[in-house]
Amino acid sequence: MLQLKKSLMDIGYLLYRLSRRYILWLGLMGMTVYLLQQTNVELPEVVNNHLNDLLCMPIVLGISQLAVRYLRSDPGIFLSLPLQLCVTILFCFYFEWHLPKVNPRYTSDWIDVLCYFFGTGWFSIMNRFRILWTSRMLF
Question: Where are the bilayer-spanning segments (predicted)?
């Protein structure tokens, strides 16, 4: 039983460490996909069409959270779930409904909407895990 608890704590610590820097890695992945697309490298269809949409919301929400923490001088601030969902809905509306009507370069795709919400869900889970882990470390 003690070994299981130690293993779970080790996994928890690994996830905590990952949650601190994952935005940097997601940004690098997104930039890599973008650069490969610009140089006409053939990518799998899922990567070419949907990976950046999946990465978009964690990157945007993560940068927003970092900005709020910096402006408020409080490293303990986390974006609330309703705010995360509001930003995601605005992104869906703008990029999947408005822009395809205005600019022929953009297309509307329901899979992209799902990718936005899955990305937000992942961001929210990582945030909640970080909150739980940091509160556990304080006690």
Answer: 21-39, 51-71, 78-98, 110-129
